[in-house]
Amino acid sequence: MTNLANKQRGVFTIELVLVLMGFSLILVFTMDVVAKQSIKGKLDRLSYSLVSLIKERTELFDGDETITYTEATKGLNLVSRSLKDTIGDFEASRLGVYIEQQQFDDDKQPVSPVINVHRFSLGQYDCQPDTPLSNMTDMAPVTQFDNKLTLYQVTICYRSNNWYGDIVGERFERVRSISMSFGR
């Protein structure tokens, strides 16, 4: 009888270890998802705010509609400062911003920009949208004056901690938010 009790205790211990390992894996996965969702929410608000600022700057400052590198850099700095205030372990090297603008000519055709005039890849982390704005020109509304409105797209990426990915040998780091808008 004692031998059987020892064997059952050994089996119970092995089963308990396996269950605790599974529970730990689920716990780490849940913590990783919650942390990434928190960052995603912050990036969503920032990308929407930045695309709104970029599209409204012509109305606010009566300026040219074309985005300049200086304006794009100011956008990156704004995002960086905001994330520094809201993410405890923020690192600027993990941040990437991609700003695009697509303008149209009088025939409602996309204006071919000079290289790097309407697209800005900023920050130290590579950040690209899945679909470039140049592939979405049909989304630009036509005004009552028969003009197509300028399209703007802001993509913000942040490389988060890879807690779950480190355990399972994968890379689940990039958190990305994309916002799109059109001018007036």
From TrEMBL:
Swiss-Prot/TrEMBL keywords: Membrane, Transmembrane, Transmembrane helix
Domain of life: Bacteria
Listed InterPro entries: TadF
Regions crossing the membrane: 12-35
Name of this chain's protein: Pilus assembly protein TadF
Organism: Grimontia kaedaensis
